[in-house]
Write a structure and sequence with these properties.
With about 525 residues, this protein is of the alpha/beta class. About 40% of the residues lie in helices and about 20% in strands. It is built from 21 helices and 16 strands. The strands form two sheets. Strands 1, 2, 3, 4, 5, 6, 7 and 8 form an eight-stranded mixed β-sheet that branches. Helix 18 packs across helix 19. It is globular. It starts with a helix and ends in a 15-residue tail after the last helix. The structure holds coenzyme A (COA).
Length: about 525
């Protein structure tokens, strides 16, 4: 291994250790004490429950584990894991979206980030046609922030709106209540297609005992008001009475054992491992995130048999190959690739090539993978006069209208309009993954410093001194670097997971497979300019 490759590897391994530390905090909020508290209540931790719910020997693909860090809400700086675990696991061979409130995080209450995470997972489930299981244990809305979590679209009420609509589409909504479900939160039990409650552990009521006392003067225990027996024997609001969490898990699995097997809407070829191991990525991606990349060398490490059938490889040398296009297979599934290459600045020729490739993949119904490491489209008079705005807009239109499943993976700079053309969050890719090498912001800190400095000078009415300029530049670089970092973006759910390099192939293959559970429609693109 060359010295440079070794330096890259050491750098990325260290970066991923930082990710491990944050994930540890997300998985163990409150430490051992919190686990003991759960045990005293007869409860297991959420990931243990999920492990039992999913098929033995299969992986649970957990999303957005670093959501909620550094949010600085009233009285709360961090909401580890957003207070909610979401992810895809297999139950009787079928992909299922699993939601689990983590009662160790402020009694599993809903903060704005918790809702965002819940909505995102429901949106994925609806789009891919996947059943949902809710392991519900929540104190409902985080009351100090009621105005930010209760009344709006995509807030509390939308959880139940989504459940109702998904169940009407035939997507099963199953709730297993393992604790409190109060007020609006009670609907997670009552809206389910089938709900499971546990004796002396699950509660569900529109108003808890203190509210009932205040409203009507009635003094009543939680158990007598809305315990598992009340709802399975008297009100009929829940359907299954169990004695323990383990029994409840078995009941959910039994309910879902009668679901028909999911169908894949694509031919699957035999899976062939890459000839270059996926761990080669650690050596092949430069430690400096602003340094250009050889994306073909990256693709070799993720593609079946390391094969990439490139499209228009020799088109417009030096101008067209800052985007590389072609097809590869991920665990036997064909995928069309649009990947940033070199320094990643998109020239008009590359934008044209990418647009063409989106259209071709849509025509033959091949899912698209965008590998993003681009700081933006080429600026300047030559580029503008050549029509970079027009060709960039065509690319954005094609990406927006593509009816095939779309995935984005960020492995470098992710700035400006390149974020649009390469299918960033606003373009609603089916799945969006990031890595420790990703930097997502409107522009780099250096560029922002220059733009903001000219505004500042105009405001002041006189030029800044060289020292003032230097200090201002540095301030902007620090701010933008912080906000572009995968931890900042992951905390705010701007991606579905920050992947370690060795996870990339497995996660992309899973995402392509899940995205193909719904049939692909016909292409239609509106007004392309060309
Ligand atoms: N809003 C804000 N904070 C809440 C909360 C809410 N709705 N529900 C609980 N919390 C906080 C508690 O203040 C406590 O904070 P702390 O750790 O800083 O002291 C933490 O969450 C744990 O709550 P605790 O009551 O100790 O947990 P528990 O396991 O004994 O009980 C509940 C859990 C959900 C049964 C109980 O907290 C409860 O009844 N909460 C109120 C539920 C409600 O009325 N919600 C209406 C909103 S829709």
């Amino acid at each position: 291994m060359s010295d440079l490759a070794m330096q890259n590897r050491t750098h990325w391994e260290n970066e991923e250790l930082k990710l491990d530390e944050l994930v540890h905090q997300a998985i163990w909020p409150g430490g051992e004490k919190a686990v003991q508290r759960l045990a005293k209540q007869g409860k297991q931790s959420v990931r243990d429950l999920i492990g039992k719910l999913t098929d033995p020997g299969t992986e649970f693909f957990e999303f957005s584990r670093i959501a909620g860090f550094g949010m600085d809400y009233p009285d709360v700086m961090d909401v580890p894991c957003g207070g909610l675990v979401t992810g895809l696991g297999k139950i009787h061979g079928n992909w299922t979206m699993i939601f689990a409130n983590d009662s160790r995080v402020k009694a599993g209450t809903y903060f704005p980030i918790t809702l965002k995470k819940h909505m995102r997972a429901q949106a994925m489930a609806e789009r891919c046609g996947i059943n949902c299981v809710y392991i519900a244990d929540s104190g409902g809305a985080y009351l100090p922030m009621q105005a930010d979590v209760f009344p709006d679209d995509q807030q509390f009420g939308s959880m139940f709106y989504n459940m109702a609509r998904m169940s009407a589409m035939g997507l099963k909504q199953i709730t297993m209540s393992t604790g409190g479900n109060t007020a609006g939160g009670a609907y997670i039990v009552f809206m389910a297609c089938q709900s499971v409650m546990i004796d002396k552990m699950s509660y569900s009521f529109l108003g808890g005992p203190p509210l009932v006392k205040a409203a009507t003067g009635e003094i009543i225990s939680a158990e007598a008001l809305g315990g598992a027996r009340v709802h399975t024997q008297l009100s009929g609001g829940a359907d299954h009475l169990c004695q323990s969490q383990d029994e409840a898990i078995e009941r959910v699995r039994e309910i879902l054992s009668l679901e028909p097997p999911q169908q894949l809407h694509s031919h699957r070829y035999e899976e062939v491992p890459p000839r270059v191991p996926v761990t080669a990525i650690y050596e092949r991606l430069p430690a400096n995130v602003h340094q250009g990349i050889n994306v073909r060398a990256f693709l070799e490490a993720i593609a079946d048999d390391s094969q990439f059938a490139e499209y228009k490889k020799f088109y417009a040398p030096g101008l067209g190959d800052n985007i590389v296009t072609g097809k590869l297979r991920l665990k036997g599934l064909p995928v069309g690739v649009i990947a940033s290459n070199g320094i990643g600045i998109i020239f008009a020729q590359a934008a044209q090539k990418a647009t063409e490739w989106v259209l071709r993949c849509c025509q033959d119904k091949t899912p698209l993978l965008f590998v993003q490491a681009s700081p933006g489209y080429m600026v300047g008079s030559e580029s503008e006069h050549m029509g970079i705005g027009k060709y960039g807009a065509d690319m954005v239109r094609a990406v927006s209208c593509a009816q095939v499943p779309r995935l984005q993976l960020v492995i470098g700079p992710d700035n400006g309009a390149a974020n649009y053309g390469m299918c960033g969050r606003g373009y609603r890719p089916h799945f969006l993954f990031s890595t420790m090498r990703a930097r997502t912001s409107v522009m780099s800190g250096r560029s922002a410093g220059e733009v903001l400095m000219s505004i500042e000078e105009r405001k002041r009415g006189n030029p800044m001194s060289e020292e003032e300029k230097q200090a201002f530049r540095q301030q902007m670089i620090d701010k933008y670097d912080g906000e572009a970092h995968p931890f900042f973006c992951g905390a705010r759910l701007l991606n579905d997971r920050v992947l370690k390099f060795w996870e990339i192939r497995d996660w992309l293959a899973m995402a392509v497979e899940v995205s193909l559970l719904r049939p692909i429609g016909e292409p239609s693109f509106g007004n392309l300019r060309f």
